[in-house]
Write the structure tokens for this entry.
Amino acid sequence: MRLLEFTIYSDSEMEQLGENIASIIESRDLVYLIGELGAGKTTLARGIARGLGYTGRVTSPTFTLMNIYPAAIPIFHFDFYRLEGNDLDDLGLEDYLEQEGIALIEWPQAGFASADRAGSGVLLPAEALFIRIGLTDEDYDRERQVSIIGQGERYQDKLKELQSYANPSHR
């Protein structure tokens, strides 16, 4: 399994990484964004949206559960942090995953939880880009470590493309 790792030193570098990711994703792709509160998941999503031509405001869908951004490829930006019980079923996730567009999912862990946690057992597809953003020394003012794994052949090929981009930190 291919793993790419980046050290990110600023919000602008995180957005640049997102723009690079936007250049390799296509309709019906699935991107899981994993990391603590404040790690930079929404900043990365903003970069992906910019890379796909969306110029409006990109915000965390923590309270709305989903934002839709009309871009070259529609972007369905989910945040599962507050989900419980049957919320995942009620969201109609499968409908969005079947549409033309890409899905960015912050806190996807709720979709991988037990059937008790996820209502009727709706589970997210295992094939996706998994992007983990980690804090350095638990310090929100320091650099971030970003690890990207492609689960499934389709996403492994995308990582090969992404690897052709230099580390956005240029350090």
